[in-house]
DNA sequence: CGTATCTACAACCATTTGGTTGCACGTTAC
DNA sequence: GTAACGTGCAACCAAATGGTTGTAGATACG
């Protein structure tokens, strides 16, 4: 509920990570189960390194986390980050409904 | 109904547009009132052309719309686009909850 | 042991992004 | 009519992005 203090950079990384179809697809798979990086990479036409970079972007945005399991790195989603993004958008809508300036979780995030 | 037909490209543009602090700031201003492009540009350090480009990015993402009013172009927010993005994130969370429910069911089935 | 597998990362390349300046054009004001 | 204003757009530039190949370090397997 509380849109806790997300720095503008964190918000940037969140939405930036979501602005790519391959990354959204990886996120979907991570939401429904755990997969190793190679298992994920096998699903796409691009190279393993490319998928690895996408996973890194999602990780920097805190949308996923990796857990070592032997020689594999298991990717699992972090629904809390998605919830933060959703709450942020919801606060934009609230801003619209109120149309008066005192409701600013986002402003707090954008103006430190 | 909720996750209506948004093409991947449209989703890309949506999140891409949101992945910049200046654009989010412009969006909040547009949500709370109408402003001309020059009025918006006056708020930021960057050049008018730079702000104009940000406005164009928001417009391509359907997050705002412009309406000519004499020689000015008035910028107003389109909350429906924000709602689409929010619903999209919510569907991701639903995916997660479904997975959790499935795992609960499996665990319950495993219990003797 | 040696070998195959999984991951990480560097170097490189093409395209996009976010910024600049300058110019053109329609509209308003004097 | 001329001057000022608001906008759109092109050309340019540095940095970031999304992809590639290649190399190297751990870890599992036969």
Please outline the helices and strands.
The structure is a homodimer of 112-residue chains.
Chain A: H1 8-18, H2 21-32, E1 35-36, H3 37-41, H4 48-60, E2 64-69, E3 72-77, H5 79-98, H6 105-110
Antiparallel strand pairs in A: 1-3, 2-3
Chain A binds a DNA duplex (30 and 30 nucleotides) through helix 4.
3D shape of chain A: elongated
- What do the pLDDT scores of chain A average to? 88
CATH class of chain A: Mainly Alpha
Strand content of chain A: 5-15%
The largest sheet of chain A is:
3 strands, antiparallel
Q: What's the CATH architecture of chain A?
A: Orthogonal Bundle
Read across the widest sheet of chain A, the strand sequence of neighbours is 1-3-2
Quickly give the structural class of chain A.
Answer: alpha+beta
Q: What is the count of distinct domains of chain A?
A: 1
What is the oligomer described by this structure? homodimer
Low-confidence stretches of chain A: 100-107
What helical percentage do the residues of chain A reach?
55-70%
Give the distance, in angstroms, between the N- and C-terminal Cα atoms of chain A.
20 Å
The radius of gyration computed from the alpha-carbon positions of chain A, rounded to a whole number of angstroms, is: 16 Å
Q: Secondary-structure element order of chain A, as H and E?
A: HHEHHEEHH
Q: How would you describe this structure to a colleague?
A:
- Two copies of one chain form a homodimer.
- Chain A is of the alpha+beta class.
- The first copy, chain A, has a single domain (8-110), classed as Winged helix-like DNA-binding domain superfamily/Winged helix DNA-binding domain (Arc Repressor Mutant, subunit A), CATH 1.10.10.10.
- Chain A contains six helices and three strands.
- Chain A has a three-stranded antiparallel β-sheet with strand order 1-3-2.
- The longest helix of chain A is centred in the C-terminal third of the chain and has 20 residues, at 79-98.
- Chain A is elongated.
- Chain A starts with 7 loop residues before the first helix and ends with a helix.
- Mean pLDDT of chain A is 88; it is low at 100-107.
- Chain A binds a DNA duplex (30 and 30 nucleotides) through residues 16, 20, 22, 36-38, 46-50, 52-54, 56-57, 70-73.
């Amino acid at each position: 509920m509380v849109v806790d203090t997300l720095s503008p950079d964190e918000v940037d990384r969140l939405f930036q990570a979501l602005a790519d179809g391959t990354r959204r697809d990886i996120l979907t798979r991570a939401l429904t189960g755990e997969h190793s990086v190679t298992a994920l990479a096998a699903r796409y036409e691009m190279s393993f390194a490319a998928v690895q970079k996408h996973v890194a972007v999602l990780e920097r945005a805190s949308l996923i986390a990796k857990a070592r399991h032997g020689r594999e790195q298991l990717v699992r989603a972090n629904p809390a980050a998605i919830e933060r993004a959703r709450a942020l958008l919801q606060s934009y809508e609230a801003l619209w409904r109120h149309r008066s300036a005192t409701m600013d979780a986002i402003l707090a995030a954008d103006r430190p």
